[in-house]
Every structure is written in C-alpha cells, then in structure tokens.
C-alpha cells in the first residue's frame, strides 16, 4: 500500500474513476489532453515562482478499467474534490472517489451514479456527510471502521491518516494504489477548474 503523504508531501489530490484517462481529464476541464512527462512537469510547475492560472492534471489507466488522476497544485482548489466534477465522473452508474491533503486537512469524497454520497475526514476517521446506510460505498467505509459520530474502530484505528485514505479508496473502488502506479508515462493537460 502506498503512502501518498510520503510520496507527494502535504499538497496533493488523487481521483479514481471508471472513465478512460482522456475522458476523465476532459470532464475535469482539460482542453488539450496530451502525453506528458507528468511528474517532471508537475515538479517544474511547483518550483516556478508565482501562482499558475491553470492547474496541471495527470491521468493514467490502472487495473480493471479504473483511471488515476493526480493533481499537485492546490492553489486554485482541488479539481478532483469539486462536487460537480465528481458527479460528472460518476454519472451513468459509475463510481468516482477523490482524496486530498493540505496542511491540517486530509479529506475524501465518494460519488456514485452522478451524486456525491459521502465525505470522509481521514484525520478523525469520521464520515461527516450523512446518507442512507443502504449505500454500498458508505457501507464499505463503515465496515472498515469509519464512523458517523462515534469513535472510529477496526482498520481505521490501526492506520495513520494517510493510510486511511488509501483504505477508503480501496473500499469504494476495489483499487489498492501501489507506488508503481505513479511511475511511467502520463496523459495530462491544464484545467482552469478549481474545487
């Protein structure tokens, strides 16, 4: 299991969706999707002086029809955490999940069939956004030990906050992120959208 905080530091957002990478990037506001040296380009942008007017989004295909979208520039907000973006990524019976870390925040959201069904606070282990217990995605999170008001239990208590995010993403998508998922070629482009 990958530690996203160790990999990216305190500023990142990852999104998992059942759309192809290019299609997901387009729904996230990228106008020109191209092959890029993703992590190198992201590093160069982060090291540049000043705030960029657009956000770099990087995408690649994963296992079982899932795509991974990464953004490392949160100055305009996290595109992947925008409710309208998650709703678009999950429309048509799909699931989409995003998580981000900023200093003092580590949050996630899950959308199913065009609707955000829950939010989670990985620091506290709680699901502050209440929906029906019958939702499979929410049920999967509750079975891990995420809580609606009580103290978290189970695997959630055993994991640190960054580990809780990866557990939550796996619970709702079936994808267990590995370090090698972040190596190699990427599709990418710039988006003016911000969450």
What is shown here, in short?
The chain is α+β, with helices and mostly antiparallel strands and 195 residues long. The protein has helices at residues 4-8, 21-27, 38-47, 83-90, 136-144, 154-158, 161-173; strands spanning 12-17, 34-36, 55-61, 67-71, 95-102, 105-112, 115-121, 186-191. β5 and β6 (105-112) form a beta hairpin.
Structural class: alpha+beta
Largest sheet data: 8 strands, antiparallel
- What is the end-to-end distance? 27 Å
> Would you identify the regions where 5 or more consecutive residues have pLDDT less than 50?
none
The oligomerization state is single chain
Judging from the principal axes of the Cα atoms, what is the shape? globular
Question: What is the count of helical runs?
Answer: 7
């Amino acid at each position: 299991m990958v530690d996203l905080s160790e990999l990216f530091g305190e500023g990142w957002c990852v999104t998992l969706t059942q759309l192809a990478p290019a299609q997901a990037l387009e729904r996230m506001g990228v106008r020109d999707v191209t092959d890029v040296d993703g992590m190198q380009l992201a590093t160069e942008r982060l090291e540049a002086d000043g705030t960029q007017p657009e956000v770099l989004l990087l995408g690649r295909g994963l296992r079982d029809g899932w795509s991974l979208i990464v953004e490392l520039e949160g100055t305009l907000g996290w595109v992947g955490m925008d409710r309208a973006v998650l709703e678009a990524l999950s429309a048509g019976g799909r699931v989409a999940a995003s998580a981000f870390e900023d200093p003092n925040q580590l949050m996630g959201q899950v959308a199913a069939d065009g609707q955000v069904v829950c939010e989670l606070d990985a620091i506290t282990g709680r699901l502050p956004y209440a929906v029906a217990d019958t939702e499979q995605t929410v049920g999967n999170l509750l079975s891990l030990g995420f809580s609606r008001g009580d103290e978290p239990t189970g695997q959630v208590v055993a994991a640190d906050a960054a580990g809780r995010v990866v557990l939550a993403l796996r619970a709702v998508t079936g994808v267990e992120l590995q370090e090698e998922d972040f190596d190699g070629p990427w599709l990418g482009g710039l988006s003016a959208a911000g969450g």
